[in-house]
Amino acid sequence: MKIKTAHLLLLATVLLAAPAVAWAPLGHRLVGDLAQRQLTPTAQREVKRLLAGEKEPSLAGVANWADELRNTDPARFKATSKWHYVNHANQQCVFNAEADCKDGNCVVTQIDRQLAILKDPTQPIQARRDALKFVVHLVGDVHQPMHSSDHGDAGGNGYQVSLKTRVEPEAYAKDKYKNGVMGTNLHSMWDYYVLGESGMRSREYADKLWASTHGRPRATRVGDPALWAQESCELVDAWGVYPESHEEDSAEYAKAMRPLAERRVAQGGYRLAVLLNSALDPAYRAPVDLPQK
Predict the structure, then answer these.
(1) 191 half-sphere exposure, CB direction, 13 A CA radius
(2) Is this structure's pTM higher than 0.85?
């Protein structure tokens, strides 16, 4: 996938001023939208009650709240920023809480912790509301392959790429976009460009994914967050996520990787729904793991 365009310049290998920490808004909204379609009526009512008063009171509408804290509550964002990912020690994808998640500050442990708050009816409603918003976001994060890394480069943030793309970056990164070339890193490519190159809006995209999976992606284990993180980590090498060159064509790379990204989004939506139904509907019985094919 190496770019051969003569005028392509290799931009300075620097991290973005505000490194991405999650799927871009599109990916998170897709996970929330797909999950909402799979909630039981009882879980739907409880979600509606907990999110009453939100600007957009839906799982898609609050899916990016944990990232938006960067601007709305910088102190809280700083305190929770490590919750969005897990870096596996010793180049192994199997989760080790002691080595990989000091003080519980990683995506695997925090999904469980926030879920426990959400499930507890004695907790204040604001605490449960925030826990719901964290769970929605973090389940999306753990399914983004670059959020569960064993390559020693902060989930691809240290792997610099000169990216030829027609997709303009978000406002904070526009100073790195010159003459159709974006100076970025592999993590940001996955956060923003792999799905963004589709050109679809979130509801249109969710409808497409729903039609192709009916909410239950093939060979999806219910599992637990540690296994989901292991999947993400292993998929990085299995799919050749690291490009052959530090100069890439965004459309070509996205075309090659989008099936994996869509699969992870669909799996995230399904698993999020199972978690929320289990937490919010006493009569719900979680499905057994689907057979692997």
Answers:
(1) 25
(2) yes
